[in-house]
SUKH-4 immunity protein of toxin-antitoxin system
Amino acid sequence: MSDGIRWIGEHSGQSPDTRIPGMLGGISLTAARDIDAEDFLTLLGAEPLQLDAGHLFKDRRSVTLPDGVDPRGVKYAMYGTCKDWVYVLEDWGMATWHLHRYGGPLTPVLAEVETVCLSNNSDAPPPRIALTTSEGRIVGAEFGEDTGCGSALDEALQRAGAVFPSVRDLPQDEVELYWERHIEELPAAVFSAVEAYCGLSVDRAAVEAGDLPVAVLFPLA
């Protein structure tokens, strides 16, 4: 049976566990369609030579950094491919794509790449969804909302129960009660919607064990 990606949402409220060699809690996901994995990771700050070295995430501490690079300024991600998508997993607090690309200009290469990002935003909540369409338009929303653009992703969010009522639809006290009762279910519902939209599946055992390749993401200029 496919692992899907719902399990990532089920553990999104957990802090990263340094006792395991991979990831489980607090994971952000970025997925891009029809782009080479190395090209996408390079745009996020990875060095092609490091990617070519073939290190696994569990061996990330053995990756040699260039002279003069402060290790506190780099982020370690793991990545893989599924169908037409390359996906990037990060557990340092948010997604690099969200930090550097959402709300700002895209490079010409990324402007035409369909990208879905679920950023945990643990240091600056709430978590957010961001979608770049194949036409280059960027839309986003907080968890519990849809993007408002009527996309197939919005439809998937609705079907998964990942769009909660707002004060535009119900009295504030009813909205607050609904969120209070269902907030713990929300991240799993959001990841389920993206799973349905993208067809993504990520091997949980491999992620926990750190058996996916590592990408060292250097600060972007």
About this structure: The beta strands are 28-33, 75-82, 85-90, 115-119, 128-132, 138-142, 214-217. The chain has one domain: 6-143+199-217. The CA atoms of residues 146 and 158 lie 8 Å apart.
